[in-house]
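ok so heres the complex, two chains, lmk if somethin looks off
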Amino acid sequence: MLEVKNLHVQVDDKEILKGMNITVAPGEVHSIMGPNGSGKSTLAQVLAGKETYEVTEGEVTFQGKDLLDLEPEERACEGIFLAFQYPVEIPGVANTYLLREALNAKREYRDEKPLKHIEFAKLAREKMKALGIDEDLLKRSVNAGFSGGEKKRNEIFQMQILEPTLAVLDETDSGLDIDALKIVANGVNSMKDSGRSFIVITHYQRLLNYIVPDFVHVMVDGKIVRSGGKELAYELEEKGYAGF
Amino acid sequence: MSVDLEKLAQEEYKYGFVTDVEQEIAPKGLNEDVIRMISSKKNEPEWLLEWRLDAYERWKKMKEPRWAFLRYPKIDFNDISYYAAPKSNPRPKSLDEIDPEIKETYDKLGIPLEEQKMLAGVAVDAVFDSVSVFTTFKEKLAEEGVIFCSISEAVEEHPDLVRKYLGSVVPRGDNFYAALNSAVFTDGSFVYVPKGVRCPMELSTYFRINAENTGQFERTLIIADEGSYVSYLEGCTAPQRDESQLHAAVVELVAHNDATIKYSTIQNWYPGDKQGKGGIYNFVTKRGRCVGRSSRISWTQVETGSAITWKYPSCVLEGDNSVGEFYSVALTNRRQQADTGTKMIHVGKNTSSTIISKGISAGEGQNIYRGLVEIGKNAEKARNYTQCDSMLIGDCCGAHTFPYIEVRNSTAHMEHEASTSKIGEDQMFYCRQRGLSAEDAVSLIVNGFCKEVFKELPFEFAVEAEKLLSVSLEGSVG
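and the predicted structre for the whole thing:
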């Protein structure tokens, strides 16, 4: 599904990714762990198409297409979703409005009819219930005045509505209490299926108790230095990144 | 952002067409003869001619104001024609008598004059260059005692009301452009809502400039008698031309005890092209007097057109407990310049005012907020809240704020908040990551920014305003 080969990325002439490789097959859950500044979030942003990052070398293919050739919105419509580490606030724009526009943009891309207000409201209500999100959150402005936990839950809610093929979760667990963490994890687990893949970026092994990865990768200084099964996460928890 | 900029920037102004209609146009230039001609065309009484001539005398002694933060070539007032009217039936009794070309123009603009095709509950006065060509729903309004007609008709049919109120809010010597308007005003709308009547429908005037090398000088007068309510909306468009055209209007509002006037504007005059060629010069004096106690005047404006905008809809809060409001969205794209804001003059006790201004600058646009809040010495416990937000799109535009505050009473309570933000790359990226195109993302974010103002517009027009804003922003992403 996703193949990243020898990816080099720089920002302001500073190289951050230095030959990154990762292959994700349909239905797999990959976890990327690593110390601060190792380039985990950069990878997430590059996959989503953030233009401040300059790809200097390497290639990324997603479902047979050259991902680097696509605009961010095209990538989204192709099925890539990024749960942001710091979801941005958009004052005056109702959460439900952005989400309906987004869903309909995606449907239009696939030559499907847009969802009517009522159909969308019904869909949203179902998903919210499962995530334990207050309906009031739909009417509020996108992320404006949301608590940290609400923001993260809102990302998962959006993911559920948009039903991506590849979801990249960028430190979705940071700043969450244990209850919120469980809700987020349930939101992800309920979406797992053979055609959908996840890349879960995290600092802590804690999240992986709830979202069990098929593969764990350790990223240091812009490269994956070691890959393994979920047991690798326990090893990291114990020994830290010092050995890498 | 690799949106096809070239294509978008060349997006045409939708209302730029010209109507081919036989016009009677006064020769260029301004002098007493022209004023006498306009006055006689309109069968005006002697007092009004005198009033016009006096305004002209005052205007001749005045200097064009240059304090605004605007740059434009000197206007040659003798190179403008001050009167242009379609030759066909000047005051049609029914739709059949209107020149079909003119009717079609309004159809094209989305303002069908057939009452059954109109938005339910909206009466329209259609002004084409210097004359009002038709007013809908007049009879229905008359049943409630509401007078809604062109000002020329009001001069003939309701001379006492016109004489009593004309110039009572904006005196003929008020300022350069108001004096010019007083001398040569041609048409506009007149509204009188009698005591205790809640006007049963939205009233609106649609201003269309068509003729070349002419100015439009309309005058609107709205009087809300005790305990009445009226909501009024104006819309404006003009053909796309290389030469700039002058529009200098005066609007006067009078609210008596417990009366409310809600005045909304959606201004979409031709803004000029990318190089700044052509476009309307919009120099407008709008003012309302809350003469009665507990009266209320609310201005809402969405300004997206014109090359130059010079406009400060104001409230003079004379009556105790009266309320003034100003909600504004001004957008400048391409080379547009807008110097706009409001004046809230607190005279009576317990008067309160609210100012919410949203300026959006894109392209090479310059957006200026200029506002005055004045608390007079007898205005006990006056209150004002001002919020002034600017948003910048791109890095060739500008936003400037000039708030003036004068307080002469120590019991006043003033609040002022201001912010300037650049449309966030992060906000854009977030929306696009969810699947929205760059254009849609900008439009979504800007509409969110303007929401506090849009919610003040009558519902049907709020939708229009959102669409208009999206169209005006096209080509601003780069």
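quick notes: Chain B touches chain A through 25 residues (CB under 8 Å). thats all i got rn
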